[in-house]
Amino acid sequence: DLKPSNIMLSSIEGGLRLKLLDFGLSKSLGGEALTGTGQTVGTCKYMAPEQFGDGTIDPRADVYAMGVVFYEMLSGKRPFEATDPQAQLNLQLAGKATPLAKLLGPGHPAPPELISLVERCLAADRNKRPQDAGEVARQLDHALDLSSKRRAAVILPSGIPDSIPSSTVTGSGLRTNEPLSQTRSSTRTEVGMMAGMATAIMGIGALIIVLLLLVIGFGWYSMSKQGEVAQPTEIRSDQVAAFRKEGLQALTAKDYDKAVTMFQVAVEKAPEDSDIKDLLRLAIEARDRAAQAPPPAPAPVAEPEPEVAMVEPEPEPEPSKPEPSRPSPSPSPSPKPTPKPVTQAPKPKPVATVTRPAPAPVVKTGTIFVASAPKGLSFSIPGVGDGVTPSSLNDVPAGTFMVTFYDGGRAIHTTSVEVKAGEGALIDVDLSGKLTPEPAPEPVAAAPTPAPAPAPAPAPEPQPEPAPVAQPATMAANVARGDLEVSSPNVFGEVWASGVRCGPAPVVCKGLPAGSVTIEIRSGKKVLRTTQANVVADTRSRITVR
Question: Which one-letter DSSP state was computed for residue 275?
Fold first, then answer.
């Protein structure tokens, strides 16, 4: 497993010794490095493009990993860096690395032969890389010969001081604060320190010596492991299961980019009957749907309550007191007083009430992802819908629902799922042990032999010819046949060709009689789509049902 964390230095008498740790090509694609959280993408950054394909690898894949390490030692950066896993994978498959000379800048001490070698090691086409560690070592030796007249030994010269003070040593963009002492029995450090120390003390020539040490160690390992580069089947199965698990977790967490990346890596390693292709399609559809969704509406701003003016009624005037009458000098009758008008208090003005419309109800929905082993099982969720695994059901109201799986119309498993608003819910069950085994075909009985007719004369009785064995029309040998590849990107169900079950779409219906056939997409006993297709003899035709 060639990467910086597995390249160590240990001190020996008179110099340093480089060690490669954690050997094993198969382990580089399996084990904890694939299933540990946050480790998958980091490990993939040192994998050659062909390791994301059919799994057939050779020593040139490790030459690629050496190129990544060399690039990192010279520049302090990896050749392929992206902000998301999908872009990272695309860069590695395309081989679009930032040119090393451009990254180092003008005036760098690295010879052009060394830069050219690193870029050859990083070629996406493995035929353009050095074929083995021996060729890499020869190219490094040539670069060293051109950069310095001194030829170095395999270990660093004894003139290096016994210890280097604990201070930052900088070289080629890499640095470390770890002191190095030859008096210690085993000083371990990563490639970053090795490059920084060698470049600071002896320049680019010492760095090339370190690269030679790395190649020598790797070359010994490659020679001892010839013929062991093929991936065991059980390891590949574990890899597919690990990528599938991470992809499903990312799918329910709505990290669609990561889900697409995990399924893309696994799809080339998965067997034909796996559901990885279908899960990849679901992840791509979910990512596209999320990209097209309108942004959430902003929360309504609460309007301030209008101030209600309090109108106080004016006080009622006190009734006027009559003035005391003066005695009149004459007995003449006094005039009657004129009554004053009574002033009424004004009525308070009515205050207008403000009526606000009720807020629109927020629709709370989620998504259900349904998968099973084996794939292609029918399921039903009352109140939500039916489908065939793997499938996704969108805009499902929040709540708890019962899910029932069927095998040929027979209910084999029931479980529940809780849907939360704005989240994804996953159902992934293994029902292999609950399926009904397919009955073995019954042997075809031969027709009974008719009794011989009575002979009118004592002539010898003729022997009756044996009756031919009846064969189904679909098995007749003289019928021309062909294959039909059926896909249904928008309809999820099983494909039936003229009454013969082919399996969940996309699928290839093999050995169909040439001519017109009826194609049906079914979900359980329900026919979702029906169309006609033409099968050409000895040819694979294609049809898309929408």
Answer: S
